[in-house]
## 1
Amino acid sequence: MGGKNIKVAKYLDTIFALTGLLLCFLSLGLITVLFIDLFIDGASRLNYKFFTSFPSRFPEKAGILSAWVGSFAVMIVTAISAIPLGVGAGIYLEEYAKRNWFTNLIEINIANLAGVPSIIYGLLALGLFVYILGFGESILTGGLALGLLILPIVITATREAIRAIPQSIREASFACGATRWQTIAHHVLPYSMGGILTGIIIGLSRAIGETAPLITVGALTFIAFLPSPPLTFEFPFISFKWLFDGFTVMPVQIFNWVSRPQKGFHVNAAAASIVLMIMTLLMNGLAIYIRYRFRKRIRW
């Protein structure tokens, strides 16, 4: 009787494995077909002029210069605002915070914020950064809005990476006379850095494709100028004026082109979608590579 049950269990396990493999291939196949169809539609517009031209009323002259520059500027603000705060919060909650009702409340709120629709962050940013703090419809507002969006992701990734470090490493460090911060800085963080960086890059790759929060805070659908340069020829040679300039980003530009009836703008939208997808895939590929390199270096 026992042998029969084992055979049935192995048979069901094989069926489950084959079903999962089939579903994976179907999902990858569908994504591949969609990407090929997108590439066929937009490949003809992928040239140097497309990357160095501003949007235009004429589809054959339109480009994504202001969109990819705006995306790059917004992502800089997003990274600067979300990464230090998210990593610091994760370290505090995992290594310093006492286990009580207040900590549990914070953890529940972080988990809930990770599932909040992105449009809610846009409305929050509109009320806080635009109306209350007076940052206006600027790159700074857009970057902070996306920073709020990915903050729970960064915190959660940091905590999970730190939690995976064996407690014996901390105890060995304490036994050698190290302080808590020395233990974190010299042992916990180096070992967990692969997971932390992976979570950060995945969060940024999500932020780069967001549209709703940026439209809410005033991202422009048509813009024919670049932000102010961050470097100048006058002392102190650094300018932060670009933070308060108007902006657009790749997803908003794609939305603008898709909403137009002309076939040429749809081709431009397909080409811009290819660029955005490649950027996202490269960021996720970088996350996988970083995780692999850090895991390879670690020897318990």
Note: The mean pLDDT is 84.
## 2
Amino acid sequence: MSESTRAVGTADPTTVDPTQADPTRGLTAWAEVDLDAIRDNVAALRGRSASGALMAVVKADAYGHGLVHSARAALAGGADYLGIAQLTEAIALREAGVDAPLLAWIFSPGAPLADAVSRGIDISIASRWALAETVAAARATGRTARIHVKVDTGLGRGGAFGSDYTDLLSDVGPAVAEGAVELVGIFSHFIFADAPEHPTVRAQQERFVEACAEAERAGLRPQLRHLANSAATLTNPSAHFDMVRPGLAVYGLSPVPDLAGPEDYGLTEAMRLVARLPLVKRLPAGQGISYGHTYTTAADTTVGLVPLGYADGIPRAASNVAPVQIGGARQQISGRVCMDQFVVDLGPSHPAQPGDEAVLFGRGVAGEPTAQDWAAATDTINYEIVTRVGARVPRIYRGADRVGKDT
């Protein structure tokens, strides 16, 4: 099977020749992103949608996987919509030629809403000022703005809450009548979707249904009602409404790791984080390792240096606890994670050599440590592990020739 491979850095992006026998040659570390996995994950998730429609969330540089490539892969998998937090990333998708329906939901007063409206980007509305600025942008551009009203059904974060929602609807009606805006959707977000039996799940669904009914009583009829994130997409069909809105699961990670792993839902992890050892050496028993000597060798041993650190998104909390696979054997970080590197005690007889690969996380079914393993080790969530992989770590894309051309 042919594959197109590309590595993207920060200040000096590098294109890797896909005809190379080893496209990682010369790299000290890289994040390998399988675009076919993203495509197939979206297809699997879409198949689970009771509504048949799906918004693939590609915010935060597609959870660290790469915005444009991942968006195209998601669309190839059947995504009907793309969801994104920041307007800047939404505009970047349009500039890259991605013309699919796209919703952006976080901006502050004075944001370039005219740029969004002129590019056909749907805008989340959660306050009267946001609606007023969107109407002004529509008038300035001469185009009808596409909006999704966000209602706070109990999360206490984004969205219009209580009487503010009622007041907002009273402003939306005249804006729709004027032709300044089109009410495309009403949406909300769960508190405990990763705990499907939690009482807030049902309560929020009921509040969401009432919020949609309130809009209809005000003469407003949205085309789409969407509430289900990854967890609800996988575990709660009653919350699917007109469209599901998965994010994490698009990238092959389980949003409910206490209930089931990716493979149980037909998902495949899309990212592998790999480094190449620049140094392997012997240390005697009783030798401290890394800052503060929080780890001391118990016997004469071999250690390997892994060229990734907290500047690359490796949690400092991974010190002495996170797993790394070297030479097919699972090891553990030894000592503190530094800005650019950490050390692994390989044991007295490990045959590691400079240039050997260290897999930080990848696919569990292949026996590799996973992002969930890292999350459990560092007392966080798998979302954070993949999204924090730094921009200076090159991304190598596989399968790009099957989902769209590199840009």
Note: The radius of gyration is 23 Å.
## 3
Amino acid sequence: MFIIAGLGNPGMKYYGTRHNAGFSVVDVLCDTLGIPLDFEKHRAACGNGRIGTEKIMLAKPQTYMNLSGESIGALVRYYKADISRELLVISDDIDLPVGKLRLRASGSAGGHNGLKNIIEHLGTDNFMRLRIGVGAKPPEWELVDFVTGHFNPEDQQIMNKAYALAADAVKCVVTDGLEKAMNLYNRSAAAPV
């Protein structure tokens, strides 16, 4: 089973914030694929379905961002998923411009505490991830306030397009493989040209 995990913080307080970009992509996937998150497993809201002929699980860990690995590690072990081929983690990234997508087969946490915790719990950084740019933190802002803050209206429009594009990228990874998805979507940005 292919596990697609979007990162974020639970609760209405964090709905639509920069740090919840991963949750937002899972929401788009739920809508476009008709997959409800109708059960909880290992502290994640989950839903099962298919992309093409592939069985998938959509997951939104409810542990709060910094403990995402507790939930994802438990899901991977329970379903005996091949970490390098059957896990895709979706997260926000302050080092990418607003709406820019970046797929990778592996890599460091890059300062992202959710990814860092996942790497610690899996014991490897060899898992696919899709990072979505939320823009750089202004110098006068504290990082926690920035990532748990909301987008301005212009950036929100860009992000809405990015979430839809990211959902398409996820579908491409599952049906056509990571390499093809990287070629198609790493050049993509949701910003208008």
Note: The first helix runs from residue 21 to 33.
